[in-house]
Amino acid sequence: MFPFTRKPVEMVHPSAALPGRATSIPTAEAHFLSGRPLKSPVPDGMAEAVFGMGCFWGVERMFWKLDGVWLTMVGYAAGFTPNPTYQEVCTGHTGHNEVVRVIYDPSIISYDALLRTFWEGHDPTQGMAQGNDRGTQYRSGIYCASDADRTKAEASRETFAPRLKAAGYGAITTEIMAAPAFYFAEDYHQQYLAKNPGGYCGIGGTGVTCPVGVGA
Question: Per UniProt, which keywords does this protein have (predicted)?
């Protein structure tokens, strides 16, 4: 989130992770733009997806702008510390990634179309970094709600990789796994760039087009 900040770029061992806490940390009650409750159950007919692409401020804005996306929220996932705080995540000693949870209507926007936004919206070859942001919390990740979604995510990676290579980029470092526990980030992080339009965010795409989800 803050440029040129030096943070660990290797995953902490689970035995060395911070202990965390048994209760969740406070967060916003409702989405700043839509007013929809952030912790409401996924409505019937809707689906969910979770992505890590670097600074979650800009990633969330990228997804809330899409037609068919019903709700977005930011948080922490794929680490070891239960109910971490932002300050703890920033130490690199929780193992968590900054992620965006997306609730969407698959009758309007497909999971493949979300994957296209994911691949085109950041550089998935940077390892434990994105832009000027360095640290394990900025890694590229797709956290899948179902086996079918995981199959699509892996297929999209194989489709996009040759295009990146042809454009001079290295190997994709994106982790793809079943969706782990999602922990809400603090109130001020939710829809941050709607509240602070001039806020910093270091994510940026490669300019390489991903053919997955076109027209979906």
Answer: Oxidoreductase
